[in-house]
Each structure stands twice: as structure tokens, then as C-alpha cells.
Amino acid sequence: xxxxxxxxxxxxxxxxxxxxxDIDQIYFHESVEPxxxxxxxxxxEKEGVIRxxxxxxxxxxxxxxxxxxxxxxxxxxxxxxxxxxxxxxxxSEIKVEAWEHxxxxxxxxxxxxxxxxxxxxxxxxxxxxxAEMIYTDQTIFWGYPNPDVGESCNRLKAWHYLVELxxxxxxxxxLPQGRFSFPESNHVLLRFPTLTLEEIxxxxxxxxxxxxxxxxxxxxxxxxxxxxxxxxxxxxxKTNEWVQFCEQKVDKLRLxxxxxxxxxx
Length: 265
Description:
This protein has 265 residues and is of the alpha+beta class. It folds into 2 domains: 2-96 and 218-252, Conserved hypothetical protein from pyrococcus furiosus pfu- 392566-001, ParB domain (Alpha-Beta Complex), CATH 3.90.1530.10; 100-191, no CATH class. The protein has 7 helices and 15 strands. The protein has a 6-stranded antiparallel beta sheet, covered by helices on one side. A 5-stranded mixed beta sheet has the order 1-6-4-5-2. Strands 3-15 form a two-stranded antiparallel sheet. A hairpin with a 2-residue loop joins strand 4 and strand 5 (63-68). Helix 2 crosses helix 3 (70-78). The longest helix is centred in the N-terminal third of the chain and has 15 residues, at 2-16. The chain is elongated.
């Protein structure tokens, strides 16, 4: 009985971090991929629910930074929702890593080689690089902003150019860091430097964004499968319904400590 009481207290604490916030209180740190956004928006509209709350941390008492869920948040906005369900997490609970991108070879590689925005070298320099590009034959190149292009060619601008170049027409597979040493045939593997949470906040406060799908924010204790109805998110007078919805979820929460594989949209 004591165990069950403690478990319920844990669930109540987790649900207390579930917030319904105005869309204008939301800040993004990354761009979105148009094709991924379209698929996500269509899936949410078809189901009539958002399955999982987005992960956010506080920028200030009334401003929230989306760490995971940019495509879902933009989808809700496109569907006319003015409220966003967030799971609020503290900075101490967040581990920031970088996704690696496995990308098929194609014309984009020729376009990249012809563009003067980058300098590619087979030796790593002391300054921060934009990306590390690994080929099937085990050759590795590091890309740096070309100083000859001028001050307008900064690291963030070059980073956006690179990611947008191949996500525009290629199917990109996101991989956790260290999954592959070298890519499979006819592919290249791109690795990116890992940003700290403070660096991400600095970029956001400077009204900038990082490219889509390069940051990976790992949080323990995520709330999944809440299936939040869209009708709760498209009105300003749904407070009572929202409270009732959260209360109904307490008895349905289950904590799984083993590893799982989740198939995303």
C-alpha cells in the first residue's frame, strides 16, 4: 500500500509539470522541415489528438523554450490551436546531444562542393567546425565557414545552408551519436558539434534558430500517449475541461523502466 501511495505521488508530480500555455509564450530553437511538418500536421488533424506533450523548459516565468516537438507545435498552430500542451522540465533534467544525419549521395554533394560558403579540410582545426562529413571509403572532411566570403558567412548561416541543401530533396535518417562509424554504401554521414543548453538559449535570445533535426534533447520521465484532444487547445475557456482531463490520467499512468523502441511519424 505504501508503494502505491508513493507511486501515485510521483504521477501527481509528473502531471503537475503538464501545462497548457498560450502559443505566444512559446519560443523555438530550431527550424522545421517542410515535408516533415506536412506529414505531422496531417497525422494530428486525422487523429484529432496530439499524442504526446512537447518538451519545454522555462526561458523566463512566462516564456517557454521548446526542446523537442517543434513540428508538432507548428502543426497545432497551423490547425488553429492557440494553446500548446507542454511538459515542463528543469535544466538539470536535460541532456543535450546532436543527431547524426545519414544522407544518400546526390546532386546536393556537387552543389556543396561548388559553393564557396565552406572550406573543407581533411584535418580538424582548433576553431569550431560546422559539420564532419564521413564517406563510405572512410575519408573524413571537416567543414568550416569560408572567411574569404565575408563576415556574413558565419557558422550558423553555413550550418543552415548545409542542412537545407540535403533535406530539401533527400530522405534523411536521424541517428543517435556513435551509432555508425562509417556510412553504408552510396551514403554520407554528417556529424555536428553538440551545443549546450546555454548556447541554445543564447541563439534563441538573439532571435536565431539552429537547423532542423540537429539537436537531440534527452529527458527522463517523458509523458507519452496522453492523446490530448485538439478541442482543448483551440479555445481560451477550457480550463475546467483541461483540469478534468489531467485528473483522469492519474490512474492510467504507468512507469516503464526498460528500454523501448518508438516509431515516430
